[in-house]
Design goal:
single chain; mainly alpha; 15 helices; 77% helix; 0% strand; globular
Amino acid sequence: MTRSLRWLAGAFLVAWPFVYSAPYPLHIVVVVLIWSFAYTSWSVMGRFGLLSLGHGGFMGIGAYVTALLWNYGGISPWIGIPLALLAGGLLAVLVAYPCFRFRITGHYFALVTLALGGIVLQVITATRDYTGGSLGYTPERYQGGSSLYALQFSGKTTWYLIALAVWAAGLYVWYRVDRSMLRYALEAISEDEDAAAATGVHVTAEKLKITVLSAVMTALGGALYCQYQMFISPDTVSGISISLQMVFAVVVGGIYVSLGPTVGAVITILLAEGLRVSFGTRAAGWDNLVYGVLLVLFIVFLPKGILGSLLDLRRTRGPAVARGA
C-alpha cells in the first residue's frame, strides 16, 4: 500500500464515527479493534515459534489489576494500567526466564504457558470475595458519568478513537519488530538455538525480550477491554478459551502479516456475535467449537492464513501475468 493510500485509509478510519455513528455497529468495531490489538500482541512472539497458550492469563492480569486498584484503592486507571502492565511483565519474566534458561522449548513451553493461564484463571475464581469469581466483576462507575480521570466515557465515539489509536500502535510495534535486528536474532533462534548462540546471539535475553513485550501488550488489551465493557469475568478475559481464541484468530488471519490478526479478529468477533444474535444462550460455547474445527482445517490446508495466502497468490500471479504479457 502506497503512502498516499495509507493516509487516505487513516483519514477515513478517523472520520468514520463522525459520519456514521450508529451505536451497535460502532460497538462491534470498537470490540474488533481491541481484540485485534490483543491478537497482534500474541503474534509479536508467536510468529517466531514461541507458541504460548497462556496469554489469556496476561489479559486477565491487565483487566483485573486495573479494576481492583480502582475499586479498592481509588487508583485512577492512568496509574492502574501501568501497574497492571508491570504485573504482566513480571509474571512473564517469572515464567519465561526459567523456561528459556533451561531450554524448555516447543510443545513443552506451550504446556508451561497453558498451566500459567489455568493458574491465573483459578486464582481469579478462588478469590471470589475480591474478584467476584465466576460471577464476574464490575468497576465502579465514576459519579457524573464520563470522566477522563476514571477513563470512563459514555460516548462510543471516544472509545472508538482510543481503540483505533491503540490498534495502530500495535501495528507500529509489529512493524518495528519486523524491521529490527531482534527479528533476525529470533528467526535464527527458531531455526537452531545452538547455531544462533555460536554466532553471538544471547538466546535467553532475546527470547525474553519478545515474550515480555508480548505479555505487556496483551495486558494492555485486557485493561482497555475492562474499561470499555465495564464488566469482566474469567471466561471473557482469561483462561484457556481466550488463549486458544488468540491462536485461532492469528492463524486464520495470517501469522506472518501485520494485518493478519485484524482479519482474524473480524472473523472471530462476527462469528461470536452472529451466533449470539441467531441462537441466544443456546449457542454458548459454540464459537469455541467452531474455532477448534476451523483451526485444524486452516493449519492443514491454509497454514499462512487468509491474508498471507492472498499475498502469496498475488506474488506468484504477478510474475506469471508479466511473462504472459
